[in-house]
Design brief:
heterodimer, A: mainly alpha, MetI-like fold, 2 domains, 0% strand, B: alpha+beta, four-stranded antiparallel β-sheet, 16 helices, 19 strands
C-alpha cells in the first residue's frame, strides 16, 4: 500500500476518533451530576436567579443546540470561554501544555535512563544477586502508584533532606525573560543556567515520581529482550571474537534488543501525560493536569471539553506518529 | 542522631545543595512571607462568576480589594471604604459616607463615584453577579459630595451586611471601564493592603505591600501565596521551610507540628457541619427526627474524630452569630431516642430505615463522622444506609429538593446573620432548603423584611427554638480552622476563615 494512502487513511481515522471524543465528552459531562450553575448558587438565590445565570452561560438551550454552537466554534478554533476564569479556553489550555510536555519529557528521559541502567546491569550480572535485587526493585517500583512515590519523594527530598522544591514550577521571586511557556527549553537556549537549575529543582520530584513506574516497565522489557538476544548466534560469534561481556551487551545486543522497548516507550508516553493529572496536583505544578482537576471540581464545562480534546489530540497524534514510523521501518506493512 | 562519615557527607551535600538552589529555612529572618494556600484562584473579579461566591478564596480577594465595609476578625463590621452608613427614617433610602484620601493601586483617587458605580453594576442582571438578587434591592444610586444615596426598591435588613460578605467588593470604575473585564483579569487593581505584582494561574500570586493603604502599610513588604491544594504537600511546605504559613491540614498533623519547629493557632470559624433532613418518607415522623437528633453524641465525635477541634452546636447559629441563643439545646440522650422511636413502633429489633448522603474528604472527617453517627443511630433503632456523593451532586440535588431523607453538609455564614444561616437553609421556597413545612415558612416569612433589628433577631431565635424542638435539621458542630506558621510570624486568625496576610506581623 503506498505510504501516502496509508497516511491519508490514518488521518481519516484520527479525525473520526477526535469527532467521537468531542461528542462523547460533550454529552457525558452534562449527564454526570453537578452543574456549574448549582455550584455558584449563593444563599438566597431564587428559581429566577437560576434561570438568569443559566441563560448567561448559554446552558438554558437544548443540549443538541449547545453542542452545535460549541462544535461550530471548535471548527473555527474557538473552544469557548472558561466559566471560572472567564478566559478563552484555547489560550488557557495551550498556555499550560508546555509545562505538562516538559514534565512528561523529563519523566520519560529519567525513566529511560533508570530503566536502561537497570536492564543493562541486570543483564551484565544475570543469574546473580544483582539481577535479583534489580528484579525486587522493579517489582516495588511497579507495585507502588506514582502519587505514592510522589509523597515518599516529598518526605525524603522536600522535608528530611530539603534539596528540591515541593511545589510550583519556578521560584515566584525570579524574573522570567521567557517568550514561550517552555521554561526548561528556553532557559537553556538563553544560557540562563540559574533559571534552568531552579526549574529542574522544581521539576525533579514530580518527574521522578512519574518516571519510577515507567522505568520499571522499561527495565523489565529491555532486560528480557537483552537476555533473549544474548543467546542469538551473532552474539555468540561476538563472544568468540574475544569481546568482553559489557561490550557484547552494549555494542552488539542492545541495538536489536532495544527495538521493542522503543515501541513501548512511544505508547507509554501517552499514558505518562495522562498520569500527570494526579502528580501535577500533588506538586502544585502549573500544568494541564492541575488545571483539569480544578475544571472538574468547578464543573467548568468548556474548560473540561477543551482539555479532553487536547489530550485526545496528543494521544491520537502520538499513535499516528508511532504507526507511521512502524510503516516506514517495516516494509512488510507497506507492501502487505 | 549518630553521624558517621557517610551520613555527614550526605548532610553536607544536602546543605550545600539547599543553599545553592535558594531553599528558605524556618530559622531565617522572614523577608518575603510565603503562604501555602489550600485552593487555586481562578479569577480576579470578586463580584461576578463562580469565584465570587467561593468562600475559600475571599482571603486573597481581601488582600487586594477592599469591601464596602470592613469586617473585623470577630466578624463585627467596622468603618472601611465606607465610614458611616444607614437608612433614612422611613427606610426608603440608604446613605453611605465614603472615606476620603484613599487611592487605587495605580495612584488615582478613590471617590464616591466608584462606590455608586459598583453598587449599580452588580445590581444589573446582565453583569452576572450571583448576588444580583440582593444588590437589585437598591436602585437609583447617586453621589452627593462624599455621600452615596440609593433608593430602596425592596427593604432588606441585611443589605449592609452583604457589603462585607460575598461580592461586596469595590472595583475601580475608571480603570475597569478603560481596560475592560479581560484587561482587569490580567492586571487587577484595588484599594486593598496589597498590590498584585505577579500572578501565575494554578501556581502563585506575588503581592507587594500598598504603602498608601488607608489602614496602614502591612508588616511584610512582599507576600507570595502559593496555591497548594494537596494537604500533605502543604504540610511539607511549612515543615521544610519553603512556606511560612499554611492552613487546613489534618488535625493530627497540626498537633504533631505545632509544638515542634512550628507554631499553630486553631480557632473556631463561621463554618458548621450539619445534617439536612428532607421532609419526605420517615422524616415526616417527628419521633424519628427527634430520636435521630438525640442519639448523636456530638462532643464524642468532636473529641474522637476531630481531636477535640470543634464546637458542639444545637442550632444553625454559632456563638459569634447575632441570633445565637445558648439556651436552645438538644442534649445527647440515648434513652430518650429509644423511647421516641418506640412510640412510633421502631426499635433495635425493628429499626427505622433511611438513607444518609455525605461527601468523603470534602470537609475534615466528613465521611467518618457520618459513619460514627450511623453507628450511634444503630444502637437506638435507626438503620441508615450511607451514600457517598460529590459536593457538586449535593448542590444539584439540594437545588432540586431531591436530597435523601438525611444529608450531611457544611454551611458557611461569615456575616453571622440568621438570614444567611437558618433563613436560607430552612426557608422552604429557598433552593437551598429541603424542608418545606408551611409552619416554618409562615414563621420565617415576616422576618425577611422586619425593620426592627431587635425584633428581627428575637424572631430568628424563636425560629431556631422551633426548629430544635421539632428536629427539622440536625446541627452538629462549628469547625475549627488549623493554621501552622513559622515562629517568625504572628498570625491573627479571622473568624470568617479568611487567611489575611495584612493581619500577619513579624514576631
Amino acid at each position: 500500500m503506498p505510504f501516502l494512502r496509508i497516511l491519508l487513511l490514518r488521518l481519516l481515522t484520527t479525525a473520526i476518533t477526535l469527532a467521537g471524543v468531542a461528542v462523547i465528552v460533550f454529552f457525558v459531562i452534562r449527564v454526570v451530576p453537578g452543574n456549574p450553575i448549582a455550584m455558584m448558587l449563593p444563599p438566597g438565590a431564587t428559581e429566577a436567579d437560576i434561570a438568569r445565570l443559566s441563560a448567561l452561560y448559554g446552558l438554558d438551550k437544548p443540549l443538541v443546540a449547545q453542542f452545535g454552537i460549541w462544535i461550530a466554534g471548535v471548527v473555527q478554533g474557538d473552544f469557548g470561554t472558561s466559566i471560572t476564569t472567564r478566559q478563552p479556553v484555547l489560550d488557557l489550555v495551550l498556555g499550560r501544555l508546555p509545562a505538562t510536555l516538559e514534565l512528561s519529557i523529563m519523566a520519560l528521559v529519567m525513566a529511560c535512563l533508570l530503566g536502561g541502567a537497570a536492564a543493562l546491569t541486570g543483564t551484565r550480572y544475570r543469574g546473580g544477586r544483582t539481577e535479583g535485587a534489580i528484579d525486587v526493585a522493579n517489582g516495588m517500583a511497579l507495585s507502588v502508584p506514582d502519587f505514592l512515590w510522589g509523597l515518599v519523594l516529598i518526605l525524603l527530598f522536600g522535608v528530611l533532606v530539603p534539596v528540591f522544591h515541593i511545589s510550583g514550577r519556578v521560584t515566584p521571586s525570579l524574573d522570567l525573560p521567557f517568550a514561550t511557556n517552555f521554561y526548561l527549553f528556553e532557559s537553556l537556549i538563553r544560557l540562563r543556567f540559574d533559571l534552568w537549575a531552579d526549574i529542574v529543582a522544581h521539576m525533579f520530584m514530580p518527574a521522578l515520581a512519574l518516571a519510577i513506574p515507567l522505568a520499571a516497565i522499561i527495565g523489565q522489557l529491555l532486560k528480557q529482550s537483552l537476555k533473549e538476544t544474548m543467546n542469538l548466534d551473532y552474539v555468540t560469534l561476538a563472544r568468540t571474537k574475544g569481546y568482553g561481556e559489557t561490550r557484547v551487551i552494549l555494542r552488539e545486543a542492545l541495538r536489536n534488543a532495544a527495538l521493542p522497548t522503543l515501541t513501548l516507550v512511544g505508547v507509554q508516553f501517552t499514558f505518562l501525560i495522562g498520569g500527570t493529572v494526579i502528580i501535577e496536583r500533588l506538586f502544585s505544578y502549573e500544568g494541564l493536569g492541575n488545571m483539569a482537576i480544578d475544571a472538574v471540581i468547578n464543573r467548568d464545562l468548556p474548560l473540561i471539553q477543551g482539555i479532553v480534546i487536547l489530550f485526545a489530540v496528543i494521544f491520537t497524534g502520538v499513535n499516528l506518529i508511532v504507526d507511521l514510523l512502524y510503516t516506514v521501518l517495516n516494509p512488510r506493512l507497506r507492501h502487505g | 542522631m549518630n553521624l558517621n562519615r557517610r551520613s555527614l557527607l550526605m548532610l553536607s551535600a544536602a546543605t550545600v545543595a539547599a543553599t545553592s538552589i535558594g531553599l528558605p529555612s524556618l530559622a531565617q529572618q522572614i523577608d518575603e512571607l510565603v503562604i501555602a494556600y489550600n485552593v487555586n484562584l481562578p479569577s480576579w473579579d470578586p463580584t461576578t462568576g463562580p469565584s465570587a461566591v467561593n468562600p475559600t478564596i475571599q482571603g486573597i480577594y481581601q488582600s487586594v480589594f477592599d469591601q464596602f465595609i470592613l469586617q473585623q476578625p470577630d466578624l463585627s463590621p467596622a468603618p472601611g471604604l465606607l465610614t458611616e452608613w444607614g437608612w433614612s427614617d422611613d427606610k426608603k433610602q440608604v446613605w453611605m459616607t465614603v472615606r476620603e484620601g484613599v487611592t487605587w493601586h495605580d495612584g488615582s483617587p478613590f471617590t464616591a463615584e466608584d462606590v455608586a458605580w459598583n453598587l449599580a453594576r452588580v445590581a444589573k442582571p446582565e453583569t452576572g453577579s450571583p448576588i444580583q438578587f440582593v444588590w437589585g434591592t437598591l436602585a437609583n444610586h447617586r453621589v452627593e459630595g462624599n455621600k452615596v444615596i440609593a433608593d430602596v426598591a425592596q427593604f432588606d435588613p441585611t443589605i449592609f451586611k452583604w457589603m462585607y460578605f460575598l461580592t461586596g467588593y469595590v472595583l475601580p470604575k475608571a480603570y475597569f471601564e478603560k481596560v475592560g473585564a479581560e484587561g482587569f483579569e490580567a492586571a487587577p487593581i484595588g484599594t486593598g493592603p496589597y498590590m498584585v505584582e505577579k500572578f501565575e494561574r494554578n501556581a502563585f500570586v506575588r503581592l507587594k505591600a500598598n504603602a498608601n493603604y488607608w489602614g496602614g502599610k502591612p508588616d511584610f513588604d512582599t507576600v507570595t501565596i502559593k496555591f497548594v491544594p494537596d494537604a500533605a504537600a502543604r504540610v511539607a511546605e511549612v515543615e521544610s521551610g519553603n512556606s511560612h504559613v499554611t492552613l487546613e491540614m489534618p488535625y493530627e498533623e497540626y498537633d504533631r507540628l505545632k509544638g515542634g519547629p512550628l507554631a499553630g493557632v486553631a480557632t473556631p470559624i463561621s463554618d458548621i457541619g450539619m445534617i439536612f433532613l428532607n421532609d419526605i418518607d420517615v422524616m415526616l415522623d417527628p419521633n424519628v427526627r427527634k430520636a435521630a437528633a438525640h442519639a448523636i453524641d456530638k462532643q464524642a465525635i468532636i473529641d474522637r474524630l476531630l481531636s477535640g477541634y470543634g464546637v458542639k452546636i444545637d442550632t444553625l447559629q454559632t456563638p459569634e452569630y447575632a441570633a445565637y441563643d445558648a439556651s436552645i439545646t438538644v442534649p445527647y440522650d440515648e434513652a430518650k431516642a429509644v423511647e421516641l422511636l418506640a412510640a412510633s413502633g421502631f426499635g433495635p429489633d425493628n429499626p427505622v430505615k433511611f438513607k444518609i448522603q455525605t461527601t468523603k474528604g470534602f470537609k475534615p472527617k466528613d465521611y467518618e463522622m457520618v459513619q460514627a453517627i450511623v453507628g450511634l443511630w444503630r444502637k437506638v433503632g435507626i438503620e441508615a444506609e450511607i451514600e457517598v456523593y460529590e459536593i457538586a451532586k449535593h448542590y444539584e440535588l439540594r437545588a432540586a429538593d431531591q436530597l435523601a431523607p438525611a444529608a450531611f453538609y457544611n454551611w458557611g455564614n461569615s456575616v453571622g446573620d440568621p438570614t444567611t444561616s437558618t433563613g436560607f437553609a430552612m426557608f422552604g421556597p429557598s433552593p437551598h432548603s429541603v424542608w418545606d413545612g408551611q409552619d416554618l415558612i409562615d414563621m420565617i416569612g415576616p422576618l425577611w423584611g422586619e425593620a426592627d433589628e431587635a425584633k428581627r433577631i428575637e424572631g430568628w431565635k424563636a425560629v431556631d427554638r422551633y426548629i430544635a424542638e421539632n428536629a427539622l435539621v440536625i446541627p452538629l458542630l462549628q469547625y475549627v480552622q488549623p493554621i501552622l506558621h513559622a515562629p517568625g510570624v504572628v498570625v491573627t486568625p479571622h473568624a470568617s476563615g479568611a487567611l489575611l496576610p495584612h493581619l500577619m506581623k513579624r514576631a
